[in-house]
């Protein structure tokens, strides 16, 4: 064999492979010159069986996010005693490579406002009464016609929820842009980092104002086209319902207690719940189409 520069790309690849397997320089030369026929293969004897390798493949497929130590531990528990280096070689031979997991290139953030009343804490009241006692004073419970309430803005994604904003007074374009600046952007940062963002909101006047549209343009954020009067399509409505149901157990007596209970209930929502709701979007769309725009179970 001449100089290394005279080798073909295939021969170079063969040399690299043989060296990685522990072959000596002389064994590599014999292989390239065709003199290795009939000789024993170079390198160490394989320390695992095909059955053991199949077990390792199943372990990897079960959870792609395991560490090398986790893989070795489970493989050992299955009866295969090996080193970390052997585990790594076998996994590589199967075609797996350790990579930083890729996230979706664009994140979807859904938003909405909801009203919470003090009476939510009293809706669970029940009374023991006999037939015909429905109108008896001792079986009636007084209610407040205009209970104290708060308006809340929130956002969610398949990765979880963002921070809540308690609204004060009527929301106009200017105040809405403050919400976007101080609550929506932190939500996007928390849930998606530096990924591109698609943002959803309804067609309320403050949302559809020209100055609000310019705010999104200036911040490089795409706004999802959204049909009017379509609460059935927005999964965040289900989150509001979850929070309101929990408030019935909290029974807040003051506005501060109400806000604290709302925040606690919102914080208890898991990414798994959000993911399931986002995953329901295709079914929601199909249901709305089938109902021809009329209400659906969502």
Q: Spans of 5+ residues with little confidence (pLDDT < 50)?
A: none
Radius of gyration: 32 Å
Helix-residue proportion? 40-55%
Instruction: Tell me the structural class.
Output: alpha/beta
What is the averaged pLDDT score? 81
Extended strand count:
6
Order of helices and strands: HHHHHEEEEHEHHEHHHH
Strand content: 5-15%
Overall geometry: elongated
Number of helices: 12
Largest sheet: 6 strands, mixed
Distance between the termini: 74 Å
Protein name: Tc1-like transposase DDE domain-containing protein
Domain Tc1-like transposase DDE: 109-259
Pfam family, one: DDE_3
InterPro entries: RNaseH_sf, Tc1-like_DDE_dom, Transposase_5
Describe this structure in words.
With 298 residues, the protein is of the alpha/beta class. It has 12 helices and 6 strands. It has helices at residues 9-20, 25-33, 50-62, 68-77, 84-93, 173-192, 205-208, 210-218, 236-250, 255-267, 271-279, 281-290; strands spanning 106-117, 149-157, 160-161, 165-167, 196-200, 222-223. Strands 1, 2, 3, 4, 5 and 6 form a 6-stranded mixed β-sheet that branches. Helix 9 (236-250) packs across helix 10. The longest helix is centred in the middle third of the chain and has 20 residues, at 173-192. The termini are far apart. The model has no long low-confidence stretch (mean pLDDT 81).
């Amino acid at each position: 064999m001449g100089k290394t520069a005279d080798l073909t790309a295939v021969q170079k690849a063969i040399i690299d492979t043989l060296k990685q397997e522990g072959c000596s320089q002389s064994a590599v030369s014999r292989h390239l010159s065709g003199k290795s026929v009939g000789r024993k293969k170079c390198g160490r004897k394989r320390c695992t069986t095909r059955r053991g390798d199949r077990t390792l493949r199943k372990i990897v497929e079960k959870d792609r996010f395991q560490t090398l130590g986790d893989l070795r531990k489970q493989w050992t528990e299955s009866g295969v005693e090996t080193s970390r280096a052997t585990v790594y070689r076998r996994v590589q031979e199967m075609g797996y490579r350790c990579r930083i997991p890729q996230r979706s290139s664009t994140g979807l953030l859904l938003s909405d406002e909801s009203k919470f009343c003090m009476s939510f804490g009293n809706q669970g009241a029940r009374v023991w009464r006999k037939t015909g006692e429905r109108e008896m004073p001792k079986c009636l419970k007084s209610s407040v016609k205009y209970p104290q309430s708060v308006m809340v803005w929130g956002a969610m994604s398949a990765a979880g929820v963002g921070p809540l904003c308690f609204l004060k007074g009527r929301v106009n374009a200017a105040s809405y842009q403050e919400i976007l600046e101080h609550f929506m952007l932190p939500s996007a940062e928390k849930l998606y980092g530096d990924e591109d963002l698609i943002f959803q909101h309804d067609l309320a006047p403050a949302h559809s104002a020209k100055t609000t549209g310019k705010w999104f343009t200036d911040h490089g954020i795409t706004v999802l086209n959204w049909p009017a009067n379509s609460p059935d399509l927005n999964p965040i409505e289900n989150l509001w319902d979850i929070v309101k149901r929990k408030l019935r157990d909290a029974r807040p007596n003051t506005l501060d207690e109400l806000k604290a209970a709302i925040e606690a209930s919102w914080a208890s929502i898991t990414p798994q719940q959000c993911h399931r709701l986002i995953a329901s979007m295709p079914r929601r769309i199909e249901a709305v189409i089938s109902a021809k725009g009329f209400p659906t179970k969502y």
